[in-house]
Design goal:
By secondary structure, the chain is an alpha/beta fold. It is built from 35 helices and 25 strands. α25 packs antiparallel against α26.
């Protein structure tokens, strides 16, 4: 259960902690000594002070970045907050900490150190409070943290009393999930339009504004809940709903009616985690938190890699992690006891927690490799993932993501749980999700993971990883043929890459058939590359054509080696199936569940191997028009990290239609930017042809229904597009200066979107200090050691801050109000040139295909600007040669002006001034 700290904690002992405190930002550094004296100091002096004595800090990695001192350590208030209030949200800034603890917000960086002392006092006092809701387990966790020499341990120890009774270990405190009878298939019901409108009015609330666009939209959605008329021919709806229509409630209204009357499950799929959180909040209007029997009518489902793996956590707590990572494991264990659903990526685990510790430590506590042993795990009955899966089978609404819906349809363990009514929100991303889901990639990283899954730990490697022999030891001892299949697979897996494979390839000393193939891929890619990315340090690729005889021979040998792995795995799967059909006396229910899980994992790997073999069989042969194949060397700043062969469907909606659409009764794709608009002067001049093609419906010979609801926002008077004509392309100094001046004119509130990480970093490095001195904090993806979700939280929380980012900030960022009043794009978002893009461009109409992609990206970026009726602002593109044909990306009526930077700055400043006057008048009235 998520706990919430009191907004106004009252305690007679909540007094400032007499420890030195340090704060550093782009504007300067300040130190407050234990005796209460605060002074500003230079970076060098701040580094010397921090190196000499541990100080109170807030977000140590960020402070270290500001000081240029990566070895900074100290008493991080965020770590203390995570211990005292696990599973509780807090924006990791001085302002956010103030709000979370009910303290007075500080206005100046010089006042932050005193705030840190006060905040530490409040948190320590909370530990002594009789009503501290997260007391259970704190003393036991602290004893472990004392042994690990956690910097806070000795400070906090006097404030946490030893409980009268021994505290239960986390794994005995977590509740067990219970099996439930299979839900019957949904009833065949038709949802009447009048009922939909009535439900919509109930959800929007009494007295809410009646939106005809929302009512029309909801009526259209209701049609996908009717039973299909022919097998393999679902109802398909493409519905574009402009921002502000209220599409979430528009589809939840008919979905909630159908779920209640048909007793079926509706799946709503998103592309971003932000929308999942929003959906969870909105769904509370239609469904209670729990039913009378305690079950949940609404469940959020994600991939296994998002949830805490209790077996991984147990391993970490028992010595699998060392140093700082071991401290993280203890804090995660504290969170696990209070978490709502165990979701570590986008759930109630603070997104900033993992960034305080070593990279990838958080992900090490999830099942990243698909190595779950299911019922063989001692924590299986308490597993967060299994709990969510079982809850979703009984839910009326399942909130998931595009990838999970597709994977579940393609290789779900339970066919009865596959969704039949699906709403794909953010539907413009379904194509991209399908492209990734149905791809095949035979790379060194993927192959070595398969080797580890089959063989297990090698040469004293640490961790809980177990190979097939360990996972199925009882099967091998009982069934001779099964044991032989396991050993054959283990022997054949020796042909797969092993640890150190990249180094051996660099030294021209590959080992095994697959490493020899990867060496040939590497050599061919370097030889054929003409992209220019080599000197820039980026990854390189080349098409799988013109391959010499040696390469083809190596591909054939590697294919034979993969087949030698696949065949015993198939045999093992058959032996497991036979064991389930004719069970030995010792095979209990838990054992059967474990073998079922093993069969599922085997099927996944067998399919992967078959896809790899098909890819290799293509090498040297005629091209398959349905696929695009290429070779690649993945690099980061000239450092190689993966090498391999890739295969993508030219049209990934073909497998999507086969696996997802054919099995469904009703499917909707919805978005604010679902289709292209070809006439800037006509709000209805939309080109649905591409949207229909990218829905997959033509592959099953279904003509989708089309619906459109225009945004109610007054874009013509609330927004303007400014195309700046005097910032030259390639002029980095000019680009940085333009960003700085725009942020200064706007007084912050700027979202800067870049098409290249290097340019973004360079711009941030040139202007961050200058802006900070003006009281305008600047944050950036790939610069600040903060996850993207938390960066957006910080940006939303502070109207004077600005945020720079790349593609991840172009979609799904919802920041209404004064915190976002200007969006700046550094240039036209051209598609990245690649072999895959070249093939799709040729098949999709050449430059017209590019234009559709660019207009979609521009429309999504513009959509960040106006999120509510009261929002206003400018959308600025720093591109002197912005093509006029792309202007239809913007809503009809929005004024578009080409002008100089100086003129643009004047418009921004005037707009900010007018808005400020309007706000003051509203407050006065």
């Amino acid at each position: 259960m998520v706990s919430t700290p009191p907004h106004n904690p009252v305690s007679p002992i909540a007094r400032p902690v007499p420890l030195p405190a340090l704060h550093a930002s782009h504007a300067g550094s300040w130190l407050r000594r234990a005796n209460g004296q605060t002074s500003g100091l230079a970076k060098g002096a701040a580094v010397m002070a921090a190196a000499d004595t541990p100080h109170l800090v807030l977000n140590a990695p960020l402070v270290a970045t500001r000081l240029g001192y990566p070895d900074l350590s100290g008493l991080d208030l965020l770590e203390l907050f995570a211990f005292v209030h696990p599973a509780t949200f807090c924006v990791p800034t001085p302002k956010g900490l103030s709000h979370a603890l009910g303290l007075k917000e500080v206005e100046d960086g010089a006042d932050v150190p005193e705030l840190l002392q006060e905040a530490a006092g409040v948190l320590l006092a909370r530990c002594e409070a009789a009503d501290w809701p997260e007391r259970e387990g704190a003393w036991s966790a602290l004893q472990s943290l004392i042994r690990m020499r956690w910097p806070w341990a000795q400070v906090i120890a006097p404030h946490i009393a030893k409980p009268d009774q021994a505290e239960k270990w986390l794994f005995s405190r977590l509740p067990e999930w219970e099996e439930a009878p299979e839900r019957p298939q949904p009833g065949h019901v038709l949802i009447e339009e009048t009922a939909i409108h009535g439900q919509l009015e109930r959800l929007t609330g009494e007295g809410a504004e009646r939106r005809e666009g929302q009512r029309t939209y909801a009526s259209a959605v209701g049609k996908i809940f009717a039973p299909r008329e022919q097998r393999g021919r679902p109802h398909v709806l493409l519905a574009e709903a402009g921002t502000g229509i209220g599409k979430t409630l528009g589809y939840l209204a008919p979905a909630s009616l159908w779920g209640k009357e048909a007793r079926g499950t509706v799946w709503v799929s998103t592309y971003t985690k932000n929308l999942q959180r929003q959906l969870r909040d909105e769904s509370r209007r239609a469904w209670p938190e729990t039913r009378a029997d305690g079950s949940c009518p609404v469940v959020v489902r994600k991939g296994r890699e998002n949830y805490l793996c209790l077996l991984n956590l147990e391993d970490a707590l028992q010595g699998g992690f060392g140093g700082r990572a071991a401290i993280l494991a203890q804090l995660v264990a504290r969170w696990a006891a209070y978490s709502q659903d165990g979701d570590m990526i986008g759930g109630d685990l603070p997104g900033w927690l993992g960034t305080l510790f070593r990279p990838r430590a958080i992900r090490s506590l999830t099942d990243q490799r698909g190595e779950c042993i299911y019922a063989g795990c001692p924590h299986y009955r308490k597993c967060f993932i299994e709990r969510a899966a079982r809850a979703s089978a009984q839910a009326d609404l399942v909130i998931a993501n595009h990838a999970l819906v597709m994977v579940n349809a393609a290789r779900g363990r339970d066919h009865a749980q596959r969704p039949t009514r699906i709403v794909f929100d953010e539907g413009h991303h379904v194509f991209d999700a399908a492209d990734s889901t149905f791809a095949a990639a035979l790379t060194g990283q993927e192959a070595i993971e398969l080797r580890r899954w089959i063989i297990g730990p090698e040469r004293g490697s640490r961790g809980r990883r177990r190979g097939l022999s360990a996972r199925l030891a009882d099967v091998a001892s009982y069934d001779e043929a099964g044991g032989e299949a396991i050993e054959a697979a283990r022997e054949a897996a020796q042909a797969l890459p092993s640890d150190g494979w990249i180094g051996r390839l660099a030294e021209n000393a590959p080992s095994g058939e697959l490493e020899h193939l990867l060496a040939a891929v590497r050599a061919t890619t370097y030889a054929h590359d003409e992209s220019g990315a080599l000197d820039a340090g980026y990854g390189i690729e080349t098409e799988a054509a013109g391959l010499d005889g040696d390469f083809i021979e190596r591909a054939q040998m590697a294919g034979a080696a993969l087949a030698a792995i696949r065949m015993p795995l198939i045999k093992l799967g058959l032996r497991l199936e036979a064991m389930l059909e004719d069970s030995p006396d010792w095979l209990d229910a838990q054992g059967r569940a474990r073998i079922e899980g093993a069969r599922f994992s085997l099927g996944w790997r067998i399919d992967t191997l078959a896809a790899w073999e098909a890819l290799l069989a293509r090498m040297g042969g005629p091209a398959d028009p349905e696929f695009v194949d290429w070779l690649s060397v993945e690099r980061n700043e000239a450092r190689e990290f993966d090498i391999g062969l890739h295969r993508r469907f030219l049209d990934p909606m073909k497998p999507f239609a086969k696996t997802v659409l054919e099995g469904a009764h009703g499917v909707m794709l919805t978005s604010a930017t679902l289709c292209d608009r070809i006439d800037a002067d006509d709000s209805n001049g939309r080109d649905w042809a591409d949207a229909i093609t990218r829905s997959g419906a033509p592959h099953i010979e279904v003509q989708p229904q089309l619906a459109h609801a225009e945004s109610p926002f007054d874009y013509a008077n609330k927004a303007e597009v400014l195309i700046v004509t005097d910032v030259k392309k390639g002029d980095l100094a000019g680009l940085a200066g333009a960003y700085a001046r725009i942020i200064e004119a706007s007084g912050g509130g700027v979202l800067g979107l870049f098409t290249a990480i290097r340019r973004m970093r360079a711009v941030h490095g040139r202007i961050a200090d200058r802006l900070a001195r003006a009281g305008l904090p600047l944050y950036a993806q790939h610069v600040d050691p903060i996850d993207t979700g938390t960066l957006v939280d910080i940006f939303r929380d502070d109207p004077r801050s600005s945020l720079l980012g790349t593609d991840a900030l172009r979609d799904g960022v919802d920041v209404p109000g004064d915190s976002l009043r200007c969006v700046v794009m550094e240039q036209v978002p051209w598609p990245k040139p690649s072999i895959l893009h070249r093939a799709r461009r040729a098949a999709g109409g050449g430059s017209a295909y590019d234009d559709r992609i660019i207009r979609g990206r521009l429309a999504q970026a513009f959509g960040r600007l106006i999120r509510s009726r009261d929002d206003s602002g400018q959308f600025i593109v720093l591109s002197p040669a912005f093509p006029s044909r792309l202007l239809t990306a913007f809503p009809s009526g929005v004024p578009v002006t080409r002008l100089t930077l100086d003129d643009a700055l004047q418009r921004v400043a005037t707009s900010v001034s007018c808005n400020r006057v309007e706000n003051e008048e509203e407050l006065h009235n």
